[in-house]
Structure formats: C-alpha cells, structure tokens
Amino acid sequence: MKLRTVSTIALALLMMLALFGCASGEALPTNADPGSTPESEPGDDLQDSEPTVVPTEEDPEEDPEGLGNKENGDSEMEPRLVISYVGNEKYDELFSLLNEANINWLQTYNESQGDVAALYAEEAILSSKNDDPVRGNQEISEYYKSFYSDISEIIEINIEGRLFKTTTSLFGFETGRFLTVEGEVYQYVIAWRNRSGAWLREIELVTEKTVGETDYDELDEARTKWMEIVNDDSKGAKDLIEGMYMENAYYYTTSRRLLNGWEEITVEYSYANASGFRLYVEPSITVMVQPDLAYEIGKWRSGSNNGNYTFRWEKGHTGEWRLSFEFDSM
After folding, report:
1. Please, are residues 116 and 109 in contact by the beta-carbon 8 Å criterion?
2. Whether residue 247 sits in one domain with residue 119
3. pLDDT band of 141, cuts 50, 70, 90
4. What pLDDT digit, counting tens, does each position of 69-119 carry?
C-alpha cells in the first residue's frame, strides 16, 4: 500500500503533544500517500505533522533537517530520536515508554559499541535480507557488535509508524529507519513485547534502504492474489504457501515458534483448508526498502478474530512478489 495522513493541526499543538510521545494505535507517517490507509478506529484522531525530535540528551544542538550537514564539514551531531507519525492522545503513555526504549537502545548501542543483548528478549530473532535469522539476544548482540565495527555509530532513529491493537497491548509493531554516522540508512520493523513491565525487542527485520518511493501497484496486486487464494474454497494451505511464499520463507507463530520452508508453514496454515474459512489483510504502512524488498505492517481479520501482522515481501527471480517472512499478533 501507499502511505497517507488524514488532517492538519497547528504546529504549537503538535509540539505540545510530541513532548508526551504523541502517538496512535495506528500511527501513520507524515509523507503519506492518499488512497489506501485503512480507516481509523472509532475515536481515533489522526493528525498531520512535521517530524518531531525527541532529544536523547538535555538541550541538544538543533538540526532541523535531521541529517546534519556533512557537505559543510558538520558530521558531529547528538544522537536523537525523531517521530514522523501522528495519532491521538490515548496512546501517549504507551508510546512514550517505547520512545524511552528506543532512546535507551540508541545510547546503549553507541556507548557499548553494539552490546545490546539486555534490550532484547532472550529468544529474540533478527532477520536481514539474504542472511539466516540471528537467534537469541546474545547472538543479536554479536551481530550489532560486528555492525558497529563495520559501520560505527548510529546518530538517529526515525520512527515512521506503530501498530498496537489497544492501549493495553503487550505486543505490537513499529517501523522506521536509522541513520549511521556515515550517512547510510537502514529500514527496520520491530515486534515489541512487554516482559514484566519492560519493553523488549522480540522480532527485528533490518536491511539497508537503497530506494525511495516507487510504484506499489505490483505489491497491491500480490496482496490481492494472496487473499484470493486463502479465501478460495477450491484451494487450500498448500496452494497459498507454495503460490505466495518464498520456498525458504520464515513464519513466526503467535506461540513464538519460528517455522521455515513451505512444508512447516503449510502445516501451520492448515486451518485455511476448512470450507468457508475467510481471512483478510489490510495494510497500514508499506515501505519499499530495496527494488526487490518491502516491509509491511497492517491488520488482519477472520470472522470475529482480528489482530496485526507484518509481511516482508521479496521479488524472486521470476519477477513475482512473494512473502519471505511473516509474523502476527492476536
């Protein structure tokens, strides 16, 4: 899908809300494209916004462009968190805690040179394009230590959207990008989980971003095809998985099992074999990361059940968009 926002407000009100971690259950980017964002929940008040800086230190030096000015020799700037989505006040408390968790991650990464193990769930999973998933918080820490050695510091996290089912949800999704001191941009999706009051990263997708806005029509068509297959009584789970997933795709279940490959995912999707079964997905945010890679978070519904999902789309050698990673929440 493409991205959009809904209305405008005065900048003064925006900045006041931003001080309290302004957000929404379905938080949308500011550079949204009209046409495909799902309608907000009753009572939601989605608003237009300019990116808001959440300082990681007191009184940081201002940089309105958000990237520093390397051409003029200004490569030094305080690491910071930028909010590029908008929403309503009822999620302020929840999302301000996630802002704090992101600031903690940014500071810990830079100060400990990538040792971020304590900020991930023990069984956490990180997946980057073309690499096998990294399993466990200690292994993820080793991944980021190597990342720090190769890339050095991260100077900014820009949060582009969040999707939580309710204000009391203990699990939800976030997407955005971070900027390295060398000017490289990495796109990410995080599945946050609250463990005994602490917000930890349980699933993380991260890949260097190499493209800007592109035509999303092919992804829309692929998503429509996915729904047509899953809702066709003449077809079943095998048709869906082999028709719409990469052969080595991963699926992280709501019971926290990481499945790999057509056979395992087909068994998990066996409920789709039932006559009359219906499942619909509605994207909230889709971001093209590379010419053959995109991240998507959105909402799913099946009968009286509903929740949120994350898809990682990849374009294979045949030119077709297929899913290479999926995880969902109830």
Report:
1. yes
2. no
3. very high
4. 334 334 456 799 999 887 668 899 999 999 999 999 999 999 999 999 999
For the stretch 259-304, pLDDT in tens is 999 999 999 999 999 999 999 999 999 999 999 999 999 999 999 9
Shortest CA distance to 253 belongs to which of 322, 166, 171? 171
Domain match, 201 and 223 both: no
Q: Are 265 and 279 in contact (CB under 8 A)?
A: no
> In whole angstroms, what separates CA 137 from the centre of its chain?
19
Q: pTM of this prediction?
A: 0.81
Residue 165 and residue 72 in one domain: yes
CA–CA distances in Å: residue 53 to residues 7, 45, 91, 160: 21, 21, 18, 13
Q: Within a 10 A sphere around the Cβ of 40, how many other Cβ atoms?
A: 16
Inside any domain, residue 33: yes
What are residue 326's DSSP bridge partners? 251, 311
Q: Look up the domain containing 203 and give its range.
A: 11-208
Are 95 and 192 members of one domain?
yes
**Residue 224 and residue 189 share a domain:** no
Q: How many CB atoms lie within 10 A of CB 185?
A: 15
